[in-house]
Amino acid sequence: MLVRFKRFMSALVAVALVVLMADTAHADFNPIGSEPDVPYVQPADANVPRRGCATTLSDPKNAEGSVPAVQVIYAWHEESGNRYDDFVERIAKIVDRVDWSLDESTNYDQHVNLSCRTGYGTSGYADYARALVVPEKIENGVIGGETAADVVEDDLEAAGYDHTNRTYMVFEDFDGTAEAFCEVLCVAATDDWDSGTMLHEFIHLFDVDHAKVTETVLHEDTDVMSTQWHTWQVDQEFNNYYDPSETTATFYTSAYPHPRKANLATWSMLTPPVCCDVGYSNDLLTAQERTIEADAPHGYPTGFTVSGGGWLQVTPPGTDNQVSARYYDGRRSLTANVQAWAEGIVSVTRRPQVTPGQRYKFFVRLTTATSGGVKLRLSWYNASNALISNSDGSLHALTSDWAEYNVSAVAPAGAATVQLSVVSPSGQSFAYVVDGLQLNHCDNTRTTDGCRLDSGLPTP
Ligand SMILES: [Zn+2]
Description:
By secondary structure, this protein is α+β, with helices and mostly antiparallel strands. The chain has helices at residues 11-22, 84-104, 125-132, 149-159, 195-204, 287-291, 320-326; strands spanning 2-5, 55-57, 69-76, 108-109, 115-117, 133-137, 166-172, 179-182, 186-190, 251-252, 261-262, 274-275, 304-308, 310-314, 334-338, 344-348, 359-367, 373-381, 387-392, 396-397, 403-410, 417-424, 430-441. The strands form 6 sheets. Strands 1-8-9-7-3-6 form a 6-stranded mixed sheet, with helices on both faces. The longest helix has 21 residues, at 84-104. The relative contact order is 0.13. The site of zinc ion has 5 residues, from helix 5.
């Protein structure tokens, strides 16, 4: 749960860390942790794909010249002794589940690079596990108490593990912490042995925080960076830290005022993302259409159109303590100023392509400082750019909270493209704020309607 970056710590980061350090991650050693089952249950052990080795070294401590990759460590100390043979295959299976979770999160093919060692066969799972997982005794581990991740990092560093192109997934066979820690080495350590916790700590090593939990307390995402206890998927909204569809797009990886922008899909520890396969979530918008991050405050939002009663601007900045309440996914949002004389329609100008007979779901985050009502609309167009029909959602009374709204429908016969709109009925005069748009193509078979789940799971 914790993340600590001694090496990269700045004054701004230190402010954010005070918040993170407050949620303690202490848990007793638990090698048989339960696997997360949201948005749906993972495959049984026998059906989890074996990730395999991106590279194989004769000396796992010397990775110079090798591809960037993850070294998996079984860490033990004298309290329980070395139980490597008891646990090595379970650890390998959890690492395979981490890889499955990343790949299954979206309709892109992307995987974790794993480092293996020579000296083991490659046929059976027992050989693979032993090539993948290296045992290490933590000499200064605390007997009868909790051993922190910095002690583990110091030990690996002293043992001579490579620091230039390796990160470390460490499974602690003692009372340790679920923690991401970077000093000379970057280690993702946990004594809760399940794929959700390890994936969560591993993503922290890319300096990603808790998916804006502090900004959206009432609407925690179904995201492994928010709720790794039951969730395995990575950034279902494509707007916090991960967008494999547009690797040049970057996102604020922590709440204001943390300055870092990044996209996990570009991490050297992962294979490049390749379109397209089947997975949980996807998005047919561009990063700008989703986040409005490219434009300056007060300006006109690129990629959006308004018609009828209202006008648009990129939300002007507030004071620091208002920013996190105003901007959902970064620093920018769109403000619609509704006028009473007519229905107001705010649209994504570009119309993504659709396939007749398939379901699409439009998500958007909306908030207002006053009160008013809007509905969401999918407008279907044929190949000649003529409107076929509208699919309207119900009228929502907006609140001061960043709730996520959605409407879904099946594209009608003849549909070639769809326009996304937020519609305010006439007779109202108020302002509402728009952010976090997404057009989900519900083309998989893993959830009830094939669409990604709505946000808003309660805190466990
Ligand atoms: Zn965490």
